[in-house]
Each structure stands twice: as C-alpha cells, then as structure tokens.
Design a protein that fits this description.
The protein is an alpha+beta fold. Helix content is about 20%, strand content about 35%. The model has no long low-confidence stretch (mean pLDDT about 90).
C-alpha cells in the first residue's frame, strides 16, 4: 500500500518533518542511512541551539530521535538511489533494491564531504590524503557497555572500552558511504576476523623470541595502517583496569518493588507469595549461584530453574544450600531421567535474574558492574559457569555457551586473572550438517555455539580457580606460548591479513578524553592522524572544521600547514587563537591547491598564490581535507532545478521544488546559512506544505 508521504533523510530537517507529518496524521515513511546528519559528526559542543547552553551533536540527535519515536511513523534504514514520478505518484528506489510509493516526497538528505578535485587526490586517498575517514563497516563490532555492539547500533548511552583500559563516553558518531578496499584481520585465540578500512590505524608491536629460553622481547607499540599489517605483527588488547566492589543490591532499586518491614513485596501477592529481604549481599554465594544460572538456568512465569546431571550431586547440593541462605526459600528439586531440576518459586527472584543475567540461553549476560568486581568475587562467577557448561578435555578446559555476549564478557574477566582464553565460534549451519541424537531424539542447533578454551600457560591458573586439577599438567614437557601478557595488555599474533571489496556504510567514533576504542579483538585509533605522528602535514580549508582538525594534529604532527583558498580565515577567533598558541601551525591564505604528488605515498603538494600567480611546493606527508560539504541530491536529477553548487532551488514559503508534490529541506537547499535551526525550520515548512498538498489531492 502506498504511503502518503516519504521523507528522505534523518538529519534535523528530516526528523522535524517527520514529527510534524506524524502530528498531522499523515501516513509517513522516513528513509535514512543513519540519523543525525552533520550534527552527529560534530565533536565540539553546539552552543547556539535554543534551550541548551551547550550540547554535543550526538546528544541532540538522541533527543530528536526520542521525540520522533513517540509518533507513529515507519522508518527504513536504507539509501535512496532514485526518485521518479509517474502520473501523481512518486516511486523511490533504494540501495537494497526495495521500492516504495508515495503521493508526496520531502528531500532532506543533507550533504557529504566535498572533494578537492585536483590531480593526485583520488590516487592518494588512504595513502596520505585523508578525510579522517578511518572506519569500520556495518556489522563490525566494538567493545561497548557490557560486551560487543555493532558499530552502527551504538548510541549516546554507550560507553566504549578504550586503549587506556577504561570505559569512556562517546562524543561523536560518524557515518559515511564507502566504496573500496576493506582489510580483514584474523588473529590467534580470538578467531573471528575484524574488518576495517585500509588506512585505519591499528596499535601493533613485534615480539622477538629467544630460542631455548622463556624470554620474549616486546617492542614499543606503534600505529600501523590496516593495509600494512602482516603475520609478523602482534596486536594489543587492553585488560580492564577498574576495580569497584559492590557489597549489596536491592530488589526495590532493581525491580522498583515496594518494601515493607525490610522485605521486598510482590506486585501481586497471593497466599503462596513469599516476601524476601530487600537487601541481597553481592558475595561469593550470590555470584556462584549466578554462574550456575548463566550456564544451566532458565525462567518460567514465576520461577527460576537450574538443571544438572543427576551425577553432579556436589553442585546440586551447593545450589540448594545457596538458595536457602540467600533468599530463605526452600527450592523444589525434581529428577527426571538423568536430569535434576532445581526450581526457585519466587516472582521476585525470577525477575531479578532476568534483569541481571538475561532470559534464554543466547541472551545470557553479566551486568556491566560485575565486570569490575574484585577478582575474589569474579572467581565465583567463573566457577559456577564452568560447573554448569564446562568440561575437562585432553589438553584444556572448555566452556560452551550459545550467548555471544557472555562468551566475550568471560574473555574480559579471565584476562583480569592473566588467563588467555581462546574463543571459537561454531556456526549452527555447520553443526547441523552432522546429525546427532540423544536417547533417540534428534538434535538440531538453533544458535551458534561459542567454545571458550583455556590451556597452555593458562592451564595451571584456571585449575587453581576451579579447584579442578588437570592431569595434562603432569604429562607436558614444555609450555608453548602463542600470546603474551605484558603489564596490562595482551599481545596477540596476527594469523592472516586479507583484503576484499566493499560498498556500503562505514562508521567511526570519537571518544571523550581518548582517541582509541576496541574493534572487537584489538585496539584501533579513531583517526588516521595517528599514523602521521612526527611528520609534516597540511590541512586544506579555513573554517572551524579545518582548525579543529589542525588542533587535534598538534598533539601528533611535527609541523602543520593550513591552506585557505580565500583571503580571510572563516574559523572562530577562539579556534584561531588556540592554533596560533600551539606554535606548530603555519597559515597560508589565498592558496589554490593545484596538485598532490607522491610515489607510493604523498610527499608534496603544489599550490598557487592567488595574488602573485606563483606556484609553490610544500613537502608534506599527509593532507587532511576540510573544505565543507556538497548536497546529496543526485537521485532527484530531472525533477528539480539546481544551482552551480548542486543545491536545490525551492519556493521559499513552502520549500516546494519545480515538481508538484516534491519538497526539499535543510542542507540540500539553496542558502547561505546552514544551521541546525534553519534545517529544523525548513523541515517544518516542508511538512506543513506537504500536508496542504495532500489535502488538495483529496478535494
């Protein structure tokens, strides 16, 4: 069924148009690659948006999205590649080969970085020419909050693990289209590959082994572009440093339930309901029981259930005693065949376990705050988890889970004990190729399995934690080391580096107080400025973005040139003063860039002095492009009139283009001033004008 209105773009103009359209009860679809437009890419605070003295771009976007979510409006995360009009209907085609129909369309697709369009630019992109466009492709994961998150799903509420071993707030999310080479890096122990753009800086080192000795010399870490990595490199993963003990938690705070006489009260009580002490000690008992649940627990409507093999009498008795001591409840124990089920009939305990540890095996997790508990407490989580889902194999301990989140959380916890785990993902499709059965019942795998393996030099330490002696420790003559912990970092050898073609969205982050984050398995920088450390670079442009980039580079580069085409600098006085104070930056005005030169990488640029017409050469090893943006309007060619900047010409009062029913708002339009407030205003006008247009069609 066709929509009445389709809005193309999820920036301030598009979101505002969506809110106004929804308030007018227009059947609306909003299509966007990602939300926020240019303000989501703004690292510095926005200080001119009414109602906020200062707010980051990403925070403002989150507030826009939250308001939009209150209204009934369909959202499609995709890229529009063509708009055509047939009779009185518009047909919109997307990158994923979908087609939508509407009676009216608002184009609010914003703008993308403007290229230099000089000889050498395309040739040296990623080889010295930068738009600070180091990124990860859609679907790639980073370590955020309590485990892995896809980078395109990260929001302002997330904290990410950084190279300094702490979790930090995100200050900016950057998304763009990319067509080119992606580097796929596979390392030892953590076997799933990481994919990133070719010039993305990765923190690396070298490890030199000394034959017949237990000594390895580890070089000082340095940044390398992804495309320069090879099997002689090792990458670094940080071991979480924070330790924060939590002595107790409360049902009332976690579940919001009422407390009477120190006991948590069920929302709906019957004569069989039990009230439980509101305070729960976060001690070894509670954490070991949590480990049992993570391994073999499930939830009913009113109960928590934990399962064991009937031969595991020690663990069965331990679980029963823990439940009695923690909650003053008598669990129900039932044996069926070879399985023992322990049930806790309490809605309070059931809801607590779902909130803390998740429901259903593939969704199990450890709450974020438990990642920072003292080691003596975390030991009990490991112990309970192993007893339920672990086994002793010929040369290692192995724990199996279907929860991806939990597998990678256990990695971070085990590393705090200086234990190096291996994580192997076994896909369900491959598992189902080999038929299996238990007691005549066929087994089918609905989820991938994650095998957490602990062996080699970590075997002894894991044995001590579990209080389970591994006989292989008596048999082995030597211990092979294929990864190393030095200080508070894990050094992991690269096994394989491959490249592949990619076309689609890529993303990057800026993090408060840090320039790094973790791309699933190792530390990466959030700007390719890192690979220009100690070098001479140029920034092209004279606005705030150019000066902010130059300021960032003053912490890395030896010398920085700023080249501005015009005779005057457009950046704010505050940014100009900060650049001048650094002592590293030389500003050149009236500079028309003519050519970028180099061999394998950039080594110089040629510019013309617009006053004297003299051509001059600067020896530089990197060029950062900050010359503004160009409207994303290619998909409406033939339906609208453009100016020389490819901006859409509109009727000022209504944002109507030359095609009836086609409106445009925000940075795509002709206009000298490109601000968040002007974009919101145009989104409002376009939505109300579209409402009037649709109303006219019905008459």
């Amino acid at each position: 069924m066709p929509y009445e209105l389709i809005i193309i773009g999820g920036g301030p103009a598009g979101i505002t148009a969506g809110i106004y359209a929804a308030r007018q009860k227009i059947n609306t679809l909003l299509i966007t690659k990602d939300f926020g437009g240019q303000i989501a890419k703004k690292a510095v605070a926005i200080e001119n948006y009414p109602g906020f003295e200062a707010i980051s771009g990403i925070e403002l976007v989150e507030k826009f999205k939250k308001q939009l979510s209150k209204y009934k409006i369909d959202i499609e995360r995709d890229e529009v590649i063509k708009v055509k009009k047939v009779n009185k209907s518009f047909f919109i085609s997307t990158r994923s080969k979908k087609e939508f129909e509407a009676k009216a369309v608002i184009v609010a697709s914003g703008a993308d970085p403007r290229p230099l369009e000089v000889p050498g630019e395309k040739e040296f992109i990623g080889k010295g020419v930068s738009y600070c466009a180091v990124c990860l492709p859609s679907g790639e994961e980073i370590v955020a909050n309590n485990s892995l998150e896809k980078i395109e799903e990260i929001g302002i509420s997330h904290q990410v693990l950084t190279g300094d071993r702490n979790f930090k707030n995100i200050s900016q999310i950057i998304g763009r289209d990319y067509r080119g080479k992606i580097i796929k890096v596979k390392i030892r122990f953590f076997t799933e590959p990481v994919r990133l753009t070719s010039n993305h800086p990765v923190l690396t080192s070298k490890v030199k082994r000394i034959p017949h000795r237990k000594v390895q010399v580890i070089d000082k870490p340095k940044w390398k572009k992804a495309e320069e990595l090879n099997s002689q490199d090792v990458v670094l993963y940080p071991i979480i440093s924070k330790i924060k003990d939590i002595e107790k938690i409360r049902f009332s705070k976690i579940l919001g339930v009422e407390v009477k006489n120190g006991k948590a009260k069920n929302d709906q009580e019957t004569y069989t309901s039990h009230r439980i002490s509101d305070v729960i000690p976060v001690d070894e008992k509670f954490l070991r029981l949590g480990g049992y649940y993570l391994a073999e627990g499930s939830l009913g409507r009113q109960e928590v259930m934990i399962y064991f093999n009937k031969k595991e009498k020690k663990y069965i008795n331990d679980s029963v005693n823990l439940i009695k001591k923690l909650f003053s409840l008598n669990p129900y124990v039932k044996t069926a065949g070879g399985v023992v089920r322990i049930s806790i009939f309490s809605k309070l305990v059931r809801d607590l376990f779902q909130t803390l540890f998740g429901k259903n095996a593939p969704n199990k997790k450890i709450p974020h705050w438990m990642l920072f508990l003292p080691l003596e407490k975390q030991k009990e989580i490991i112990k309970g988890f192993y007893r339920g889902d672990g086994c002793l194999r010929n040369k290692d301990f192995c724990i199996v889970t279907t929860s991806r989140t939990l597998a990678y959380q256990m990695r971070d916890i085990l590393l705090r004990f200086k234990i190096i785990p291996g994580i192997e993902r076994r896909k369900k499709e491959k598992l189902n190729k080999v038929p299996g059965e238990i007691g005549g019942r066929k087994i089918r795998f609905n989820y991938d399995k994650y095998h957490i393996r602990i062996g080699g030099p970590s075997l002894k330490k894991m044995s001590e934690i579990l209080s389970v002696y591994h006989p292989y420790m008596d048999k082995r003559n030597r211990v092979c080391r294929h990864a190393w912990i030095k200080g508070n970092y894990l050094y992991l050898p690269i096994r394989e580096v491959e490249s592949e073609g990619y076309r689609g969205r890529v993303y990057n982050l800026r993090v408060e107080g840090n320039n790094t984050y973790i791309a699933k398995n190792f530390i990466v920088h959030n700007c390719d400025g890192a690979v220009f450390s100690g070098k001479t670079v140029a920034v092209i442009g004279g606005g705030n973005s150019a000066f902010e980039t130059a300021l960032f580079l003053t912490n890395l580069a030896k010398k920085i040139y700023i080249l501005e085409y015009g005779s005057e600098i457009k950046a704010d006085k505050e940014n100009q003063e900060a650049v001048e104070k650094s002592g590293k930056v030389k500003i050149i005005t009236n500079a028309a860039l003519k050519e970028i030169k180099g061999d394998k990488f950039v080594n110089s640029l040629v510019y013309q002095d617009r006053k004297t017409k003299e051509e001059k050469t600067l020896d530089v090893e990197g060029i950062f492009v900050e010359i503004g943006y160009q409207p994303t309007t290619f998909f409406v060619k033939g339906l609208v009139d453009f100016n020389e900047e490819d901006e859409i010409k509109i009727e000022f009062e209504t944002c109507q283009t030359k095609t009836p029913g086609l409106f445009a708002a925000g940075d795509v339009n002709v206009g000298k001033f490109k601000q968040v407030t002007t974009a919101c205003g145009e989104g409002t006008k376009a939505a109300l004008a579209a409402f009037n247009y649709l109303k006219g069609l019905k008459v």
